[in-house]
Amino acid sequence: MTIATSKPQTYTAEEYLALEVESELRHEYRTGEIVEMTGGTPAHNKLSSALNALLWFGLRKKPYTVFVTDQRLWIPAVDLYTYPDVMVVADPLGLKPGRKDTVINPILIAETLSRSTQNYDRGDKFVHYRTIDSFQEYILIDQYRPFVEHHVKQSEHQWLLTEYQGVDTSFSLVSVPVEIALADLYEGIEFEPAEESNSEVG
After folding, report:
1. How far apart are CA 107 and CA 136, in angstroms?
2. How far apart are the first and last CA of the chain?
């Protein structure tokens, strides 16, 4: 017996943007589909906020803008609209033509990993991000242990991955003049046992 499955409803980008402006929740737009972005754990939010603060202080009075969580990004090559956890944009700010609320030219993007999103963040999402000409640096932050994956663009088709582990470790960013100490990034984070964190969905 074959079980019939209904196709998800599809929308134009214009329909998505009209709905998103009125929505209290954030959604991604992926090739016609609107996907709700679930809320994160306190650790997820604290880590994203900590990185945002470290970048903001490090780049204060410099020609960069730092965004956290609620800033929409458009990736024209794949017509994807999404909300990275943290973005850095070099001034002047680039906006999608005809929009005042959607940026297009990040140089650095960071995502705090969760059980439900880590494969997407490491996989298809990173592939999509790499189609952005201005994009140079990608940071993936593990919320379950002090561990950071740092990707730096070397050439058009080459990226270098360096891993940093432990709160006694620090690393320097390449696209902006900031050094990140994992002790500062993970300050105040209480790590959950693995079996408890499996129920997290954000």
Report:
1. 5
2. 35
Residues of the chain with pLDDT under 50: 1-6, 195-202
Cis peptide before 92 (omega within 30 of 0): yes
Residue 138, domain member (yes or no): yes
Beta strand 72-75 with 80-82: parallel, antiparallel or unpaired?
Answer: antiparallel
pLDDT in tens, 158-185: 999 999 999 999 999 999 999 999 999 9
Q: Which amino acid is at 29?
A: Y
Q: Is 58 left (phi over 0), alpha (psi -120 to 50) or beta?
A: alpha
* Strand, coil or helix: 105: coil
Q: Report yes or no on 168 lying in a domain.
A: yes
Residue 164: which CATH number? 3.90.1570.10
Q: Which domain holds residue 64?
A: 41-71+82-190
